[in-house]
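Hello forum,

I keep getting stuck at the same step: I have a sequence, I want structure tokens, and every attempt I make locally crashes halfway through. Rather than fight my setup again tonight, could one of you with a working pipeline run this one for me? It's a single chain of 58 residues.
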Amino acid sequence: MAKIKIKQTGSPIRRTKDQRATLVGLGLNKMHRVSELEDTPEVRGMIRKVAHMVEVVG
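Reply #2:
Ran it on my machine without issues. Output:
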């Protein structure tokens, strides 16, 4: 399957617990960390949930 790279650009400080948990689920919990995951509908939904804190790199 295709891979997708995600970089965390926003801080989880003052965010809800579910948004923090979503970042951890994506393998991101520190600023500027990059995670490479399979491009599935579930991962796309998680990215959409925290779109204001992440950016898709490639």
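The domain at 3-56 is CATH 3.30.1390.20 (Ribosomal Protein L30; Chain: A,). If your local run keeps crashing, start a new thread with the error log.
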